[in-house]
Amino acid sequence: MRIVLITGISGSGKSVALNVLEDAGHYCVDNLPPALLSSLVKTLTDEGTQALAVAVDARSAESLATLPTDVLRLRAEGHEVKVMFLTANTHSLVARFSETRRSHPLSHELRPGQNPAARRTLIECILEERERLSAIEKLGHVIDTSELSANKLRAWVKELLLTDHAPLTLFFESFAFKLGVPMDADFVFDVRALPNPYYDLTLRPLTGRDAPVIDFLDAQPSAGELLIDIRNFVEKWLPSFKSDNRSYLTVALGCTGGQHRSVYMAEKLAAYFSDKERVVLRHREQS
């Protein structure tokens, strides 16, 4: 059976991801206690279910500790298990809870000896949840949804579904430093040292995917040197990540606005490695 396990911080988009998987034909279960995962898989396997998606959150605190072992056991039994961990920065999470006017799942829990009137604040709930989930964050692919719209998250989840049989998938992601570094990045490269096309009024409305911007940066010796340096670094260390049985490696390229230099560099790197590896290209600041 193909199993997608969705976990992560409340408010980071788990429901959005689960809806994408349901639309893709997965049998979906939300808020399943991890202790019930193995029995659910057995029941659905006996019924002939081919694809399952399960969302797990921090409310099942006691059984979360067994989740890594459960995942390994399911894989040993021959199931294809993919894990997605969704996260976001605290500022984005607070804004989302404020917009929806929903309470955090952990806000209803009482600590030992606590007065029922003295419940956790939203910030306390988020910090507690991060602590509970820290041990399982690296079970799979981490997606930082801080600056993602629901539509972009849906697209990224669909991309992830296409990587089922790849031994390792390389994600190249462009971003804007002014909007924050992606929390899901394994490596972050700063390309702001390159000449900025933004200061050319004819190039400003374009992006690093447009020919005039590409031509401008191709003509800069520093751009070529930096591209080779990053490419050589990734090539040197990629075998180590493969030997460590990693399924994903995210290389993030940042510039000031996430429109020109970082996009150009991500496109160049993705094109180079696509002949050798399974590559997914993302531009966080572009629709």
UniProtKB/TrEMBL annotation:
Organism: Duganella radicis
Domain called RapZ-like N-terminal: residue spans: 1-164
Binding site for ATP: 8-15
Domain RapZ C-terminal intervals: 169-286
Family annotation (InterPro entries): P-loop_NTPase, RapZ-like, RapZ-like_N, RapZ_C
Record has Nucleotide-binding as a keyword: yes
Binding of GTP, residues: 57-60
Keyword terms, alphabetized: ATP-binding, GTP-binding, Nucleotide-binding
Single Gene Ontology MF annotation: ATP binding
Pfam families: PapZ_C, RapZ-like_N
The protein's name: RNase adapter RapZ
Domain of life of the organism encoding this protein: Bacteria
Gene name per UniProt: rapZ
